[in-house]
Amino acid sequence: MSRAISVSLMSLLAMFATFAFSLPRLLAQEKEGPYEGDIHESDLRRKELIERIKKNEIPASIRLRYSRKEGDFLEFYDLEGKAIYYKYREDRFDRDSDARVLFLISGSAYEVTGKFLGFYHLSRLYSPESPEFAERLADPDSIPVFLFNAARPLRTDQILL
Length: 161
What we know:
Blueprint: H1 2-32, H2 46-54, E1 61-70, E2 73-77, E3 83-87, H3 95-100, E4 109-121, E5 124-126, H4 133-138, E6 143-153
Parallel strand pairs: 3-6
Antiparallel strand pairs: 1-2, 1-4, 2-3, 4-5, 4-6
């Protein structure tokens, strides 16, 4: 009986010690500012990205959340939930490209890199060389498309089950 009490007491002390060491760290984080998550208010959004594309100032990487595979594209979304596509395979028979993106988890945030390809609208990709590109650039329903290069997870300390 006393052994069970001492084990319980030791467990209680261990929990208290963990809390005592964690509390100052939590208070310090609160002083730094509010937690914004993996994607911040200051991160690029689709409408800002389109403005940069108009000025030919295309960013090397964008912080986005992964949604799903959509045909030959990976669908990511910004803080407002607006889609941005990354073409990751040539066609549905490209099995090597499928293996390259197995690590992506829906809802997780990534820093995604890739070369700008154009705009996707009504199942068609309009490249910057296309005559309709200017029209697609002005259309808010057109989705920016990049060639998928890599995606770096923004949260690496979480435990995945």
